[in-house]
Design goal:
This protein has 323 residues and is an alpha/beta fold. Helix content is 35%, strand content 17%. The strands form three sheets. A seven-stranded parallel β-sheet has the order 1-2-3-4-5-8-10, with helices on both faces. Helix 2 links the parallel strand 1 and strand 2. Helix 7 runs parallel beside helix 9. The longest helix has 16 residues.
């Protein structure tokens, strides 16, 4: 039984074959790191940001693309790929810089979709128009605009030094959707909050908030503690403990049942980079976490939207032939 509307199955239905994501580092920074808003960043964020590290090795966008594409072609015979501008906030700075990066995607072999990781407060009409125009110019089937929401609690957002509120996310989501861009919300379970730590109630509030907006996809992340972060200092001082695996499985199951069944699930758990994890230990084994999520969903008979319009079983457009 297919229990969630997975991105892999969504893309396979759309293209008739597997579409592989390729991470690209275009050298962007973050307004919460470069002094525009703050130099401290969000309390949970690794100062090095996410990404492959290939830019630090001197590889251009096209060279990064060739590096990963060659691996996937040789190993799996794949033909189609999504370019993922991943590190930091990839619409931060002037629109001209974003335009230059988009130009460098022209002609990348096998490029079918684009995913852009950014913040809702790093978008304006000019940048959104530019992204919408680039979809046609680059011949892209879809642009996934991945926006960090994290939580629907403005109180928690202030506590974690996020630098924007929920209204900024809602405004950006609506403006992006009006232009045909697919918004993907990043949501974190177990964030530190003024009262201690967010739990199930806050996660369900966040899912309800996402459901109320034109959001086409979601990424769920369990909060884990990274080296070199303020959260790591809080953890060392006994001020914060991340969720246990049992807590996260229960919260995630409840959230998925509450989630709109049409929303595409891009991720179900966080994946620490090698060497960055402080706690919890369980978060460091991605395969075991995936298996635990699958087993929990099967044992508890959980499927996406069970409590939100899909009470009789997953919608018929969930393809049981796909993994």
């Amino acid at each position: 039984m297919v229990r969630i509307h997975r991105l892999s199955a969504y893309l396979r239905r759309r293209f008739g074959e597997r579409v592989q994501k390729i991470p690209l580092d275009a050298g962007f920074s973050c307004p919460n790191r470069d002094g525009t808003l703050s130099r401290e960043g969000c309390v949970f964020c690794n100062p090095q940001g996410s990404g492959s590290g290939l830019l630090d090795r001197g590889l251009s966008i096209s060279e990064q693309w060739a590096f990963w594409r060659d691996i996937h072609v040789k190993k799996h015979g794949l033909r189609l790929f999504t370019a993922y501008l991943q590190s930091y906030s990839n619409t931060h700075g002037p629109a001209a810089r974003l335009a230059g990066v988009l130009d460098r995607l022209t002609g990348l072999p096998g490029l079918s979709c684009l995913a852009i990781g950014t913040r809702p407060d790093c978008l304006d009409d000019e940048k959104l128009d530019l992204l919408a125009e680039s979809r046609e110019r680059l011949g892209l089937a879809e642009i996934f605009l991945e926006l960090g929401l994290q939580t629907a609690s403005d109180e928690t957002l202030r506590h974690i030094n996020r630098g924007h509120d929920t209204a900024a996310f809602a405004q950006a989501a609506r403006a992006a959707a009006e232009r045909g861009l697919t918004v993907v919300a990043h949501v974190m379970a177990g964030l530190p909050a003024p009262h201690g730590r967010e739990g199930l109630a806050e996660l369900l509030d966040t899912v309800d908030f996402v459901n109320s907006l034109p959001v086409g996809g979601i990424k769920f992340h369990n909060v884990y503690v990274c080296r070199g972060t303020r959260l790591a200092r809080w953890h060392d001082d006994g001020r914060y403990d991340p969720p246990t695996q049992e807590e996260y499985l229960y919260w995630l199951g409840e959230a998925v049942m509450r989630l709109d069944p049409r929303t595409v699930v891009h991720r179900l758990n966080g994946n620490p980079a090698q060497g960055e994890l402080v706690a919890p230990a369980w978060a460091g084994n991605m395969r075991k976490v995936h298996n635990a999520v699958r087993d929990h969903f099967e044992r508890e008979d959980i499927w996406q939207g069970k409590l939100n319009g899909a009470g009789n079983g997953p919608p018929e457009w969930f393809d049981p032939e796909q993994p």
